[in-house]
Amino acid sequence: MAEQRWETPQPLGLVAVRQExxxxxxxxxxxxxxxxxxxxGGGGIIGILSGGEDAVQITVRGxxxxxxxxxxxxxxxxxxxxxxxxxxxxxxxxxxxxxxxVGRVDVDVRHVIPPAEVLMLDERGEDAEG
Length: 130
Hints:
38% of the residues lie in helices and 35% in strands. It is built from four helices and six strands, in the order E-E-H-E-H-E-E-H-E-H.
C-alpha cells in the first residue's frame, strides 16, 4: 500500500505532508481540549480502554483530509461540548498549520473516565506522550 500524504501544488512547487504528520497535529490539537483523554494502544488503563486502537486515524481523499478520533471524556464534562470542541480544534489546527482542506472530523466517544482515575493516569505517566 502506498504511503498516504496530503499534497497541494504551490507556485514554487508541490507541498506534501505525510499522514504521520497530519496524525501528530490532530493528536496534539485534541489533547489541548479540556475534559478529553485520547485513547491509545499499549499498556495501562488507557490501553485497555482503547482495545489497542490508535486515537487518531487520518484518511487522505484527493485534496481532502478526513479525521477519525477516539476519545474518553472526563466525568463531569459535557460529552457533547467536549466532542464539538475537539472537532473544532482539530479542524482549525489542520487547516491553519498545514493548509489542508478538512472534510470530516468524526469523534467516537468510547468511555467516560472518573476524575480520580484521570489523576491516577496522569501521576503514573500512562496517559502522557513520551
